[in-house]
From TrEMBL:
Keywords: Ion channel, Ion transport, Membrane, Sodium, Sodium channel, Sodium transport, Transmembrane, Transmembrane helix, Transport. It comes from the Eukaryota. Pfam families: ASC (PF00858). It is a multi-pass membrane protein. This is Pickpocket. GO terms for cellular component: plasma membrane. The lineage of its organism: Eukaryota, Metazoa, Ecdysozoa, Arthropoda, Hexapoda.
Amino acid sequence: MAPASIPIRRYSDRAAKFVRQSRPITVRKLRRTRNAGLDIFRDYCGNSSIHGFKYFVGNGRTRVEKVFWIAMCVLSIYGCASLIETVYDKWTRSPVVVTFAEKPTPVHDIPFPAVTICPVTKVKSKVLNFTTIYQHLVHGGNVTDEDYDRFLAMIQVCDFSFNKYLVKQEFDDNLVHLLQEMAPPFEELFLMCIWRGKYVNCSDLFEPTLTERGICYTFNGLAADDVLRKEEYHQDFEHLGEKRSSENWSMEHGYRPNIGLKAYPRRVASPGSTAGLFVGLKSELSDMDYLCGGYQSQLHTPNQCPQISNQNIRIPMNQALTVSVDPLLLTTSENVMSYSPEKRLCFYPHERYLRFFRLYTKGNCELECLSNFTLHMCGCVQFSMPRAANVHICGLAKLACCEEAESILQEQGLGSVDNSTKMLLQSCNCLPACIFLKYKTEISQSHFDWRRLTDTIHLCEKELNK
């Protein structure tokens, strides 16, 4: 008997039984899923601690009541989101909040202020009688060429303006050499100096410094090698005459330990006038030209170039002037360094490169910015400004331009400059230093009857005879 035949099945028929059969989605299932979602929402609203959500549900609530509470909650969420956005925007603009944690600092950890003294009398009367030359020019008198050149140089360092009577000159590259030749000898300006209660030769304490007021003398300033990039400077003359190195002190780290009082810049071990600096200044009566006479002084940090015109103390003759100094050292936490300078609004000393200065301070940055902007506007710079070797010194014809450049720099925030000027000014970006030192001063003065003192104790009678 023949065997029964086995039916042949195709592969597709055998594989079909492994294919998952899709079931049609019915309306009942959709409704059941929606109801489950509503149940979860009702359960959440009924048990939520968020105020107002429980009024969204409940059989006893009218539709108007539910709509009202939904609107109130939406408005509340919108208001919270707006406040969060405002706070976040404020944080992105200024994430660093400045708080002052005052901590007493020993006086020996802070350098004594640098003291710059400028004689307003820039020339002795036997070299140039400024008032006489001025009157000759006004009334049409004769003046020698040598006296006229010296008079032009004096105008640039005097407080008064005499430009309208003079022939204009655009450049005056020999100006500083004339000022140095005419400057009164050092020993005819300083009578005596006392430092930390001991008499010291004034020439051992003060070094010549070039400022916008001419030849001045600075005590406790840093050396030119520590402040200036000499490779970028001209070689016509020196701006800072100090030679002592400040390798044992820095603004960031202060004095090195176990250095003692011989460290430079100088410091004191205790407060009080006896631990400070006493300077006796003099001026001969024959040199007291009242168009240009007296003394000016400025107290500043040792790492900053003095700018007498910004802030100074006027020292009148026949007066005893006492300046009490209260130092304020401001430091910034190291964790603030992770923020960008634009957010923390200050520069650490190593962050900002200046072309002419090795040390960043706000004052040094502003002086370099003023020099660059004056060169941009006038094609030259004033004699006291930092400059490269191929840059001219402005003459009298350019003084008005220099004054305008300084005025524009001061008014840059008012938006009254053209685009090219605005771009140059924005490149200055002279933010405060994150670590800086400033000195608050309190001044007192009284009449000084020095003649009675010298006649009584026979002190410096020959030096003060005239």
